[in-house]
């Protein structure tokens, strides 16, 4: 009996983890990684690889490509490889630059003014949406 309870708890934890870390429809790699970093922090390349596995499994060179861009881990995707395109973000209509998806309530809610909701990419792409631009290498 106690073993069944443990298995059920493990299944529920797995379902919760999948729900909290799923990729939203048309969400780009960089927006996903940024969102996961805000929620859970950097844990190596976990979020980058999860995105690849869920949306672009054929992108087997993603990790190497990011490493060449200076992103050896998830936090460096948003710090070294890409940066927000603040000119584009400033030009967005006001209602778009304060929205954020809440996975717990499955609703859009107010968020910090930093990065707007993802502008979207085609399925299978590992490119960033228009909110991000490539950071120049120094």
From TrEMBL:
UniProt cross-references to Pfam families, sorted A to Z: DUF2695 (PF10905)
InterPro entries: DUF2695 (IPR024248)
Protein name, UniProt field: DUF2695 domain-containing protein
Organism whose genome encodes this protein: Brevibacterium daeguense
